[in-house]
Every structure is written in structure tokens, then in C-alpha cells.
Input
Amino acid sequence: MAAADNLAFSPTPPAPRRIRRVNWIGVWTLYKKEVWRFIKVINQTVAAPVVTTLLFLAVFTLALGRDVQLGAGISFPMFLAPGLVMMSLLQNAFANTSSSIVGSKMQGNIVDLLMPPLGPGELTAAFALGAITRGLVVGTVTAVTMALVVGFAMPSPLLALYFAVMGALFFGLLGVVAGIWAEKFDHLSAVTNFAVTPLTFLSGTFYSIDRLPGLWNSIAHLNPVFWLIDGFRAGMIGWSDSTPWIGGVAIAGLDLALFALCWRLFATGWKLKA
Output
């Protein structure tokens, strides 16, 4: 009877409390996997972009170098080099996340990313960090190679670093969105050909947008890649077609919006879960 009374009047055990913590081990593991992906084929992911960028520099310098007058003691190759460095950085950051996600979907092992105890924010952060790493590695190697050919004054290295990191983050997150949306590499190629490449080529990489007439000049200012290249160029050689801090604030806002979008896509499992 006493045992029954004890059972009847025993207090209800409290519900377990969930402790929300960041799975640092999981984030680090996924990050290492993303970095190891491009390091294993470093000839394709780092060496090839550097060679392509040098070819762009050589061709445009030979074709237009004598006809473009910039003033302020800045030659056309010096003006062109920072834009090419940033263009290569952005394209490789995009490729790192987009190809990883599409490849996992096509191979059927995307479940290996969704099953571990990784939240949507942790998945987004790990992919973004991997894209930033690849972008900075490619950008650094390209910039060092360019410096041997052209030379950089580097008046504001921290400004250049800020725009390099924010640009790699922007295109890395854009690659996450594209990778989740795409069902095969043909879809990804369409995004690259009709969105990424036009954005990078029509952004003031090869010319100063001050040369564009009124309407086209205004349209060019709506291109986020213009703000990235212009801010990076200001840090590398001291030349800017706009006010760098305005572009820096705008890109930070776009990065936050893209991070929230990626978080939402991973949280809902759109095009990732059956």
C-alpha cells in the first residue's frame, strides 16, 4: 500500500529541456570536406583560373592598352588587374557551393548532409566558409601573380580584404541557392551562363563605368558585382568610380538576405527532401 501511495503522489518528472548549441564539430567536418574537394583537384580549381585570368590581362592589354587613358598615373593593365582578380574569386566561390550540392543530389548522397545533426544555419555557414576559402585562395594566388606582372600600390589592404570576403560570401551563398534549385549540371550551367557570367563581365571589370551614358550608367550601379569590384579596386590601386563604403553596406545587406534565404531553403528541405 505504501509503495502504491508513493507512486501515486510522486512528482511528475520535468520535461527535458532542449539546449540549443552550435554543432561546431559538424560544421568543421563539413567545412573540411568542402575545402578538401577543391584541394584534391588544385590544378583545375586554382591553377586554371590563374592562367585564364592572365590570358584576359594579356589579350585586353594588347588590344586596348594603348587606347585607354585613365589618368592619375594609373595604366590600363593596373586598372584591369583588380577586376580580373575579383572576377576569378567570385566565379570560383560560386562554383564551390553550387557544384557540391548539385553533385550530391545527382549522386544520391545528399542525405548524408541532411541526416547528421546539423541545423540549417550550420549547413549554410559550412558551405559559405568553404566558398570563402576557395575564393580567397584563388584570389590571393591570382593577385600575387598579377603583382609580378603589373604591380599594386595597395593603399587600403583592409578595404580590399573586406570586399574580397564579402564578395566570396555573396557568390558562395548564391551558389547554395542555385545548387538547391538545380536538378542537374545543365541547369547549373544555365545559371552560370545567363546570370553569373553577365553579372561579372558587365560590372566594370574591363572598363570604367563613368564612360557609360546616363541610363546605362545608372543600370550598372544596380549590379552588385560592380560594387564588389569597385571597392576591391579602391583597396588595391586607389581608383574608384563610386563611394566604396556605400557599396560595402549594400553588399553586407545582400549577404544577410541571402544567408536568410539559404537558411530557409535548408530548413524547409525544398528540392532536397522527397
Observations:
- Confidence is low (pLDDT under 50) at residues 1-5, 15-19.
- The chain is about 75% helix and 0% strand.
